[in-house]
């Protein structure tokens, strides 16, 4: 039984590391898109609603990517935060 648990924990750790690496790779592009939408907010008022929605959506994606990147770093060091 303990071998199964150890194998499962190792697999979860590998998944957390891979997810963190993928999130770290996506983070610069997400930040670039977020900044571009924030810079264009003062433009056309009709597009303002879309841009505000897109900014909120991208901000959530950036926060999730940062969280997953941090979890990947923690998994590399041997501990995983059980917040999610």
Could you outline the blueprint of secondary structure elements for this entry?
Elements: H1 2-39, H2 45-77
Describe this structure in words.
The protein is mainly α and 84 residues long. The protein has one domain (2-77). Helix content is 85%, strand content 0%. It contains two helices and no strands. It has helices at residues 2-39, 45-77. Helix 1 runs antiparallel to helix 2. The two termini are 25 Å apart. The model has no long low-confidence stretch (mean pLDDT 87).
Largest sheet: none
Number of strands: 0
Q: Give the overall form.
A: rod-shaped
Indicate the structural class: mainly alpha
Low-confidence stretches: none
Topology order in helix (H) and strand (E) letters: HH
Helical run tally:
2
Query: What average pLDDT do the residues reach?
Result: 87
Rg over CA atoms: 18 Å
Brief rundown of the structure:
The protein is mainly α and 84 residues long.
Supply the key terms.
2 helices, 84 residues, 85% helix
């Amino acid at each position: 039984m303990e071998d199964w648990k150890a194998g499962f924990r190792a697999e979860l750790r590998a998944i957390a590391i891979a997810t963190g690496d993928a999130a770290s790779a996506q983070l610069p592009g997400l930040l670039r898109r977020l900044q571009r939408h924030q810079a264009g907010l003062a433009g056309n008022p009709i597009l303002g609603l879309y841009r505000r929605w897109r900014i909120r959506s991208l901000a959530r994606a950036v926060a999730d990517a940062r969280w997953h990147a941090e979890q990947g770093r923690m998994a590399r060091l041997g501990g995983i935060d059980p917040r999610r």
